[in-house]
Amino acid sequence: MKDQTKIIAALLVGAAAGAAIGLLLAPSSGSELREDIADYVNDLAEKSREQAKRTAESVREYGNNVVDQAKSRANSIADTVSTYKNHVIGNVKSAVSDYADQAVEYGGNIVNSAKSGIKNGANSLNNDIQNS
């Protein structure tokens, strides 16, 4: 982009210098020559302004495209992270639920075992009392 601007500027300066030299060497009166030079410089300035506007618009469009691409990539990354986060949360919830179920089952086994032990002990004590 910078090289194109330099080339365009060099061409415009060269064209202006060539036109000015051509006008100075042309067989015209001083007032006609000054008027021709002023017209040419005004035309050249207008063309330069138009080219600057086109270049600025091109740079603006390029910048907008870069920003849009960056936003799109950032949104894509955010979506991926969100999906991964939800997946991890689901896995953690599932593991916690499994561990809770195992704890309840283990606790139930302990309670049942204790009940059985107490019942056997009571039966044994009852038998001993009856046999005495």
Structural write-up:
By secondary structure, this protein is mostly helical. The chain has one domain. The protein contains two helices and no strands. Helix 1 runs antiparallel to helix 2. The longest helix is centred in the middle third of the chain and has 102 residues. The protein is rod-shaped and about 150 Å long. The chain starts with a helix and ends with a helix. The model has no long low-confidence stretch (mean pLDDT 81).
The major sheet is characterized as:
none
Report Rg.
Answer: 46 Å
Helix-residue proportion: over 70%
The total count of strands amounts to 0
**Count of folded domains:** 1
Report the total helices.
Answer: 2
C-alpha end-to-end distance: 111 Å
Summed over residues and divided by their number, the pLDDT gives a mean of 81
How much of the sequence is in beta strands? under 5%
Overall 3D geometry? rod-shaped
The succession of helices and strands, N to C, reads HH
Q: Helices and strands in order, then pairings?
A:
Layout: H1 2-25, H2 30-131
In short, what is this structure?
By secondary structure, the chain is mostly helical. The chain is 95% helix and 0% strand. The protein has one domain.
What features would you highlight for this structure?
single chain; 132 residues; mainly alpha; 95% helix; rod-shaped
